[in-house]
Amino acid sequence: MSLVLDSAAQDLLFREARTANTFTDEPVSDEQIQAIYDLVKYGPTAFNQTPLRITLVRSPEARERLVQHMAEGNQAKTATAPLVAILSADNEFHEELPTLFPVFPQAKDLFFGERSAREGAAGLNAALQAAYFIIGVRAAGLAAGPMTGLDFAGVQKEFLDGDHTPLMVVNIGRPGADAWYPRSPRLAYDDVITTV
User: Fold this and answer.
1) Tens of pLDDT along 138-173?
2) Cα separation of 152 and 134, whole Å?
3) CB of 79 within 8 A of CB of 171?
4) Which of 166, 180, 177, 175 lies closest to 85 in space, CA to CA?
5) pTM for this one?
6) Each residue of 132-142: pLDDT tens digit?
7) Which of 49, 55, 63, 74 is deepest in the core (most CB within 10 A)?
8) C-alpha to C-alpha distance for 126 and 91, rounded to whole angstroms
9) CB atoms < 10 A from the CB of 61, how many?
């Protein structure tokens, strides 16, 4: 059985897509990011909580501050990528639930009144949205370089507040020279799928 999505689109989003490690200097515009967001905002989250927040790092000063918090192997590519995004989880997402989930506005207090419940839900659902965002970057014909090699506490203190938990940093742009490492192996279907 084949997928409905044509083979070229499958390649763009999955088979040929890789984490980019170098980028050209072609800028990434606000319009491109808007188009990406306008696509990926439809990805599902529990209770439509949509806790992902995106901080675009554009100024040279902000970029320099961010690079200091990246692992050594991630510093050069973060310093030179056309655009860098900090993806974080908003632990106060529940304040938007009466608007985002109008069929059950009581969910705000019933399920998410406690901070610990919100943090768990925000982390899981923002991670889902981060994956959607990476696919959206690919759909825009750009390359993404998601990284978790960073000082999370430092990034939170420098760019966020106590209500936002950093998840990853993503470099975004057109792939440069030698952008890709060789494709790493994947698990086979039978190693992952179990029928009960």
Assistant:
1) 999 999 999 999 999 999 999 999 999 999 999 999
2) 20
3) no
4) 166
5) 0.95
6) 999 999 999 99
7) 49
8) 10
9) 9
